């Protein structure tokens, strides 16, 4: 019988709640209270997340976010700013010592991205992992990924773009040089793709989640069993939402 | 004196340095190392920022300080390295 991992489908949540849930599960998993967990989720309202090392005031046009009703949050993972609107976001939380997870960080990115690649394959999309942290399909980026390791536990989360609006994204992000903004937008449009763009039709979130579930099960040779957050995880989520991801101290720290 | 730099690390990520430096002594007062790179454990970046205070803004002392910080705190960079970080800091100066 295949090893069983937990599947969480937490639907649409605010930016602070989404990041708080990932961190809550990182805590409970590190304490051996819950099995390895794969989670699929989305963002409502849309939000920008920035990497741990980024400065929110350097990266994000906060006035534009307010005007568009877009939230913002700083992640516990490194990497770049991401506009979360039309996408499936996944996370995987698993002990560093698990035999399925390479000890080497770069190798583990590749392994986990393998699950997303197989998931995209379920939808008929060929893709490949491109280090450091991207998945590309037909030469264009369709997924960005970011990993942290804390308390001997791996948390990797990433996006699978179902659609993309590069103009809107750049209306919310600051660029280092305004003079080249138009060129930058044109470049990014050439370099980014989505499930909708490739398949030329809208694929419902549920169908993308089904495909990703199959991708994770196949890559890791496991069975994902639908579960819920534990009471402790719900309490931790509320705590992290309030004290961390919903707090100025955290989001404006850098 | 306040200064900033934006530096695309060769084969790496986009590094953005925010620096406050002492013009007379040519040394770091405060530094913030930002960007879309990865560093493990993440929290060590703030330790490194603290350790860079008062370092002379020249290639050799900066590189040595960064390398000793990496070694002492067992920092693993992805998309960034000591040489790239040194270059980004030096680019803050006119």
Quick recap:
The complex is a heterodimer of chains A (254) and B (94). Chain A is of the alpha/beta class and 254 residues long.
Written description of the protein model:
The complex is a heterodimer of chains A (254) and B (94). By secondary structure, chain A is of the alpha/beta class. Helix content of chain A is 41%, strand content 28%. Chain A contains ten helices and eleven strands. In chain A, a hairpin with a 2-residue loop joins strand 9 (140-150) and strand 10 (153-161). The longest helix of chain A is centred in the middle third of the chain and has 18 residues, at 105-122. In chain A, 46% of the residues are buried. The mean pLDDT of chain A is 96. In chain B, a hairpin with a 5-residue loop joins strand 1 (2-8) and strand 2. Chain B is globular. Chain B has one domain: 2-Layer Sandwich (Enolase-like, domain 1), CATH 3.30.390. With 94 residues, chain B is of the alpha+beta class. Chain B has helices at 44-51, 59-72, 82-90; strands at 2-8, 14-22, 27-35, 38-40, 76-78. At the A-B interface, strand 9 of A face strand 2, strand 3 and strand 4 of B.
Distance between the termini of chain B: 11 Å
Count the DSSP helices of chain A.
Answer: 10
- Quaternary state of this entry equals heterodimer
Which fold name corresponds to the CATH topology of chain A?
BirA Bifunctional Protein, domain 2
For the CA atoms, what is the radius of gyration of chain B?
12 Å
Low-confidence stretches of chain A: none
Structural class of chain A: alpha/beta
């Amino acid at each position: 019988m295949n090893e069983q991992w937990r599947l969480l489908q937490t639907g649409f949540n605010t930016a602070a709640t989404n990041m708080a849930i990932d961190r809550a599960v990182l805590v409970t998993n590190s304490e051996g209270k819950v099995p390895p967990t794969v989670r699929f989720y989305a963002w409502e309202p849309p939000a920008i997340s920035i990497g741990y090392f980024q400065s929110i005031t350097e990266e994000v046009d906060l006035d534009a976010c307010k005007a568009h009703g877009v939230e913002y949050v700083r992640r516990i993972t490194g990497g770049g700013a991401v506009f979360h609107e039309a996408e499936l976001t996944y996370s995987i939380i698993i002990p560093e010592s698990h035999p399925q997870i390479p000890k080497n960080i770069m190798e583990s990115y590749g392994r986990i991205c393998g699950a997303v690649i197989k998931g995209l394959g379920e939808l008929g999309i060929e893709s490949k992992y491109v280090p450091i942290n991207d998945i590309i399909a037909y030469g264009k980026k369709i997924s960005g990924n970011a990993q942290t390791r804390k308390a001997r536990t791996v948390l990797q989360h990433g996006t699978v773009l179902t659609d993309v609006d590069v103009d809107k994204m750049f209306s919310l992000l600051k660029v280092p040089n305004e003079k080249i903004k138009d060129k930058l937008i044109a470049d990014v449009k050439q370099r980014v793709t989505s499930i909708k763009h490739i398949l030329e039709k809208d694929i419902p979130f549920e169908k993308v989640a089904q495909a990703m579930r199959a991708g994770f099960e196949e890559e890791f040779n496991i069975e994902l069993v639908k579960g819920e957050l534990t009471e402790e995880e719900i309490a931790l989520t509320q705590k992290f939402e309030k004290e961390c991801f919903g707090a100025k101290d955290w989001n404006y720290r850098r | 004196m306040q200064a900033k730099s934006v530096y695309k690390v060769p084969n790496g990520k986009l590094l953005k340095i925010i620096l406050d430096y002492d013009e007379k002594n040519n040394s770091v007062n405060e530094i913030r190392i930002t960007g879309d790179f990865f560093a493990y454990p993440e929290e060590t970046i703030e330790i490194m920022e603290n350790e860079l205070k008062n370092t002379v803004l020249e290639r050799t002392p900066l590189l040595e300080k960064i390398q000793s910080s990496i070694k002492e705190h067992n920092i693993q960079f992805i998309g960034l390295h000591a040489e790239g970080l040194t270059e980004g800091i030096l680019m803050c100066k006119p």
